[in-house]
């Protein structure tokens, strides 16, 4: 039995010769174009939303409800539920997608010297304003958290 091999261009021309197939292809291309337009619009909206959030954070540096720059939050007070200082923000752990996962908090020590570092779930912190400065109320016991140590990779 012998098989017939047609060149790809001839095969494509034969398939495209049918009006129904051509219409189906055009419909698929139209749907793909609409999907790309919608995705582009969503990306553009995301950029615009992000720019607006950054503008609001910069315009309202003392109000954490508008968001804030991380550099303005480092050394912010961490308070207990009675709004007494119990620590200060030393750093944040941020996931690749931009979500803040942990707050690294210094407890004990004086004026940022000494003490120990603990890692608290960011969701346990509530941003507040104290005398027009950003602070956080921690909804737990910082003293019960284990020490936070950075891996040295060796």
What oligomeric state is this?
Answer: single chain
Structural class: alpha+beta
Order of helices and strands: HHHEEEEEE
User: Mean pLDDT, nearest integer?
Assistant: 78
Instruction: Report how far apart the termini are.
Output: 66 Å
Helix content: 25-40%
Number of helices: 3
Extract low-pLDDT stretches: none
Which percent band covers the strand fraction?
25-35%
Taking strands numbered 1, 2, ... along the chain, how are they ordered across the largest sheet?
Answer: 4-3-2-1-6-5
Shape: elongated
Count all strands and give the number: 6
**Radius of gyration over alpha carbons?**
28 Å
**What does the main sheet amount to?**
6 strands, mixed
Describe the structure.
Helix content is 35%, strand content 25%. It is of the alpha+beta class. A six-stranded mixed beta sheet has the order 4-3-2-1-6-5. A hairpin with a 5-residue loop joins strand 2 and strand 3.
Question: Tags for this entry?
Answer:
single chain; 154 residues; alpha+beta; 6-stranded mixed sheet; 3 helices; 35% helix
Please give the structural blueprint.
Layout: H1 8-16, H2 19-59, H3 70-73, E1 77-79, E2 85-94, E3 100-107, E4 116-121, E5 125-130, E6 133-138
Parallel strand pairs: 1-6
Antiparallel strand pairs: 1-2, 2-3, 3-4, 5-6
Short description:
The protein is α+β, with helices and mostly antiparallel strands.
